[in-house]
Specification:
Blueprint (H helix, E strand, L loop, with lengths): L1 H7 L4 H18 L6 H31 L4 H31 L13 H75 L4 H18 L5 E2 H19 L3 E9 L4 E2 L5 H10 L7 E9 L3 E9 L12 H13 L4 E7 L3 E9 L1
Parallel strand pairs: 2-4
Antiparallel strand pairs: 1-3, 4-5, 5-7, 6-7
Helix pairs in contact: 1-3, 2-3, 3-4, 3-5, 5-6, 5-9, 6-7
C-alpha cells in the first residue's frame, strides 16, 4: 500500500511551508497558560511527523484509492485503523515527553498537552483541512478530465458526422450522374440533333458538382442556378411534352448544403406521369427570416406512385437532412388522383 503513496507524494516548498505553519499552530495552542517553552517546542516537534504521516496516508492513499472509487467499507475500515494507530502514537509521544521533559510530573506539563482528546482534535483538524483541499483538487482534476473526454467525444461525433455527410454526398453525385448519362445515351442511340446540346448542359452541371463537392455549404442562389440548369436538361429530353414552373421568393440570402433539393426535382421527372399529353411540374422555393420552404408538385398516376419507389438519391437526401437539421425540419408528401406533392420546411 505504501508504493502508490510514495509514488504520488511529491514534496514541494508549499509542503514545507504548510508544516511550518502547522508547527506554529501547535506551539501557539500548547503554550497557552504555560511557561515551559522547551516542552512546548519538543512536544509540537514530535507531534508534527505523526500529523504529516496521517495526513499523507489519508489524502494520498485512502481518498484516491477507496473514497473516490466509492469503496466506502474499505475506506471506513482503514480510516478506523488510522485513528486507532494515531491515538496510540500520540499517547507514546505524550508519555515520552512526560518522562524526559517533565520528570514524571504532570503538573510541569502545559495544560493543553495533558488532554489527549484535545491533542487528537488538533491533529485531526489539520488532517481534515488538508484532506478537504485535496478533495477539491481531485474534484477539479476529475472535472477537467470529464471536460476533456466530452470534448474528445464531441470531436469524434463531429468527425463521424462529417464523414457520413461526405459519404452521402459521394453517393448522391454518382447517382445523379448515372441518371443523366442514361438520358444522353438514349438521345445518342436515336442520333438526335439535341445530343450535343445535352452534353454541353451536362458538362455545366458536372462542373458545378465537382466545384461544390467538398464545400459543406453553398449560396442558395447557386443551388437555384443548378436546379435551373437541370430543368433545362430535362426540357431538351421531354421537348414539348413538359411544362415546368419554377418560382422563387428569396427574401434572405442563406447558405445550404449543396444538391439538397436535386433528388426531389429528379424524382419528379423520373416518376411523374404525363396527363393529357403533358408532364406538369411546379417548383416553389421561398425563404423567410426563420424558415426555408421548398415545394415540388408533379402530375402523377396512382399506378406510378413515387411513394412506392424511392431512389438512392432521395433516401440519402433524407439521411442528410436528419444529420444536418435534426429536429429542425419537416418533410411531407401528399398524393391525390392526378398529382404528387413533396414539401420540405427547414428552420434556419
Amino acid at each position: 500500500m505504501l508504493k502508490p503513496l510514495l509514488k504520488e507524494l511529491k514534496f514541494t516548498p508549499l509542503h514545507l511551508l504548510l508544516w511550518v505553519g502547522v508547527w506554529l499552530f501547535y506551539s501557539y495552542f500548547f503554550s497557552y497558560g504555560s511557561n515551559n517553552e522547551d516542552f512546548v517546542f519538543w512536544f509540537s516537534t514530535s507531534l508534527l511527523p505523526v500529523t504529516a504521516a496521517i495526513t499523507y496516508f489519508i489524502s494520498y492513499l485512502l481518498i484516491p484509492k477507496y473514497l473516490i472509487p466509492k469503496k466506502y467499507v474499505q475506506f471506513s475500515l482503514y480510516l478506523l485503523y488510522t485513528v486507532v494507530c494515531s491515538i496510540y502514537l500520540i499517547l507514546i509521544i505524550t508519555f515520552v515527553n512526560l518522562i524526559f521533559l517533565s520528570d514524571f510530573s504532570i503538573r510541569k506539563m502545559p495544560l493543553l498537552t495533558r488532554n489527549v482528546v484535545f491533542v487528537l482534535i488538533l491533529v485531526y483538524l489539520v488532517v481534515c483541512m488538508v484532506c478537504f483541499v485535496q478533495l477539491l483538487r481531485y474534484n477539479h482534476k476529475t472535472s477537467n478530465r470529464n471536460k476533456e473526454l466530452e470534448n474528445k467525444l464531441l470531436e469524434g461525433k463531429l468527425l463521424l458526422k462529417q464523414k457520413e455527410l461526405h459519404y452521402l454526398k459521394q453517393q448522391i453525385h454518382p447517382h445523379f450522374l448515372f441518371n443523366t448519362l442514361n438520358t444522353v445515351y438514349g438521345f445518342a442511340l436515336k442520333g438526335s440533333k439535341e445530343t450535343p446540346d445535352l452534353i454541353l448542359k451536362l458538362s455545366n452541371l458536372l462542373d458545378y458538382i465537382l466545384n461544390q463537392i467538398e464545400k459543406p455549404l453553398v449560396p442558395l442562389t447557386e443551388e437555384i442556378k443548378h436546379i435551373d440548369a437541370y430543368i433545362g436538361l430535362e426540357q431538351v429530353r421531354f421537348r414539348d411534352t413538359l411544362r415546368v414552373r419554377f418560382t422563387k421568393d428569396v427574401q434572405k440570402e442563406i447558405q445550404i448544403p449543396p444538391m439538397l433539393f436535386i433528388a426531389f426535382v429528379e424524382n419528379a421527372f423520373k416518376h411523374g406521369t404525363p396527363i393529357n399529353g403533358f408532364l406538369d411540374i411546379e417548383i416553389h422555393l421561398e425563404t423567410t427570416p426563420t424558415h426555408l420552404l421548398f415545394t415540388i408538385q408533379n402530375t402523377n398516376s396512382k399506378n406510378n406512385s413515387p411513394s412506392e419507389s424511392h431512389g438512392i438519391g432521395l433516401e440519402n437526401t433524407k439521411k442528410r437532412l436528419e444529420t444536418l437539421y435534426p429536429g429542425q425540419y419537416t418533410l411531407s408528401h401528399t398524393e391525390n388522383e392526378h398529382s404528387y406533392t413533396v414539401q420540405l420546411e427547414i428552420q434556419l
